[in-house]
Amino acid sequence: MGSVVYIGLGSNLAEPIKQVLQGVEEIKKLKHSTVERISSLYQTPPMGPQDQPHYVNAVVKISTTLKPLALLTQLQSIENQRGRTRDTGHWGARTLDLDILVYEGTTSSNPTLTLPHPGITLRNFVLYPLNEISPQLQIEGLGSLTQLIDHLNEACPAIINVKNLDIRASV
């Protein structure tokens, strides 16, 4: 049995719904990993510059024996395959963004990977999908999802696809 990990997905370029769904499919193919749950798709305005399209976001829960940095490398490879570039600035538009949000039982302040994700408490498009698929989740050093959502005090983002994403089905 592996470690439980939550991965955030986001896209606002090149058919964002398709990008996020394809990202889920690629995560399903990761060696030594099993997708356990997939949230609905949520639509949110961009966090940074507002002169870009809205984002489509989701969260997946996986079980993996990959170590955090090895998983990060695999996720960045998926981003690159989907046309992700890193020249759009901190909050710039992107085809696909994959973030390790929580790697249960692990904290890290490594310059390459901070765990839990440093922006997790500030993002309704992360907290609400996490709450949808794992409402009892306690985030190390931060608290329960209920506490974090209450503290954030932002509405749930619009759900744009409530279809039950069967973890065995292909997109």
The number of domains is 1
Using DSSP, what is the number of strands? 10
How many DSSP H or I helices? 4
Which regions are unreliable across 5 or more consecutive residues at pLDDT < 50?
164-171
Helix content: 25-40%
The radius of gyration over CA amounts to 15 Å
The best one-word shape is globular
Query: Sheet bearing the most strands, described?
Result: 6 strands, antiparallel
Q: What is the CATH superfamily classification?
A: 7,8-Dihydro-6-hydroxymethylpterin-pyrophosphokinase HPPK
Task: Output the CATH topology.
Answer: Alpha-Beta Plaits
User: Element order, helices and strands?
Assistant: EHEEEHEEEHEEHE
CATH class assignment: Alpha Beta
Question: What does the model show?
Answer:
This protein is an alpha+beta fold. It has a single domain, classed as Alpha-Beta Plaits, CATH 3.30.70. The chain is 26% helix and 29% strand. It has helices at residues 16-28, 68-81, 124-133, 145-152; strands at 3-11, 33-38, 41-44, 55-64, 97-103, 108-110, 113-115, 138-139, 143-144, 158-161. Strands 1, 2, 3, 4, 5 and 10 form a six-stranded antiparallel beta sheet that branches. Helix 3 (124-133) packs antiparallel against helix 4 (145-152). It is globular and about 40 Å long. Residues 164-171 have low confidence and may be disordered.
